[in-house]
Amino acid sequence: MEHDTQARVRISRIAAHLNPRSDGFQNMEEYSGVYQLNCLAKGASPGFKVAILGAAGGIGQPLAMLMKMNPLVSVLHLYDVVNTPGVTADISHMDTGAVVRGFLGQQQLEDALTGMDLVIIPAGVPRKPGMTRDDLFNINAGIVRTLCEGIAKCCPNAIVNIISNPVNSTVPIAAEVFKKAGTYNPKCILGVTMLDVVRANTFVAEVLSLDPREIDTPVVGGHAGVTILPLLSQIKPPCSFTQQEIEYLTNRIQNGGTEVVEAKAGSGSATLSMAYAAVKFADACLRGLRGDANIIQCAYVASEVTELPFFASKVRLGRAGVEEIYPLGPLNEYERAGLEKAKKELAGSIQKGVSFVRK
Ligand SMILES: NC(=O)c1ccc[n+]([C@@H]2O[C@H](COP(=O)([O-])OP(=O)(O)OC[C@H]3O[C@@H](n4cnc5c(N)ncnc54)[C@H](O)[C@@H]3O)[C@@H](O)[C@H]2O)c1
């Protein structure tokens, strides 16, 4: 009898992998029931519980793969409104410690979020050639609001990494949602601007013929066009540039996203470099949560560094999330002019996000 049960479970498990169900929430529940048996058999390594919302997308899939490889992750929840059974089955075969579970559709959002330490949000639509990040506002604002309502209810103490564009507005949207729910903690909501830093390090290294891993470029402001402000005067190790190099680098860093959107010619925006950057940033958040010292990264957060309520700058990550926000440091004349332009555009984007929730 017991043998029969075991055989049935084994057969349904194989069937579920060969033919993942995507035809309804009930089926997905049955499917994830089978799935969890699989996960438990592997055993979870000690670590953090991480959810990716938008896990079946262009960023979500490689991000899920890289997070499954992260030894700090013990449980990985993959949530999307489409295709999570397939992505989950695929990722779950990787022989790393994290247990992977898939969740499909709004009805499973709360299960996906309950108990999470870190939630990463790459859900939403990406840019096509000719679009600005702000053109995505109408769709992505609603998606981020719904997902943050879920987080406020199910894991209000989680660190939230927001990737969905326009980041300059989606972070204020998230803050407003948490305020409404009475669970706002500005230390826990971080807009991911890491890709700007990753690009800056790469392009600077190219100009200087150095290894990009040796370069640390602060990028402040926000995450769109002129709001992306690389502080080339503060690069570590210190280096100097001609004015022509400064203009070339600033322009390329500010338009790195558009470079990819145009090269992809209608099939989306940066996904692979973004997944890399998101994992680099998420790993820093997890190391902070673990209590590691001196975890410093740039991020777009609630801030008093300027007169604006949100601003990207270097922050120190720790057990409480953002534990310290560093001032901008000395800027040269070119950077000061850039800062004024950035602030002007950022102010409008922040207001747009706040009004979206308050209206
Ligand atoms: N912060 C950055 O540096 C940065 C860089 C690149 C892209 N992005 C942004 O990331 C977002 C995702 O980009 P992508 O290329 O992965 O797009 P994509 O279209 O390939 O994937 C988005 C995924 O989100 C899912 N989704 C849509 N609505 C959802 C909802 N309500 N709940 C859960 N999931 C939902 C979709 O089903 C899809 O799988 C875009 O907004 C893009 O502009 C940000």
UniProtKB/TrEMBL annotation:
The keyword Oxidoreductase applies. It catalyses: (S)-malate + NAD(+) = oxaloacetate + NADH + H(+). CDD domains: MDH_glyoxysomal_mitochondrial. It holds the Pfam family Ldh_1_C. It is found in: Peroxisome. Keywords: Glyoxylate bypass, NAD, Oxidoreductase, Peroxisome, Transit peptide, Tricarboxylic acid cycle. GO terms for molecular function: L-malate dehydrogenase (NAD+) activity. This is Malate dehydrogenase.
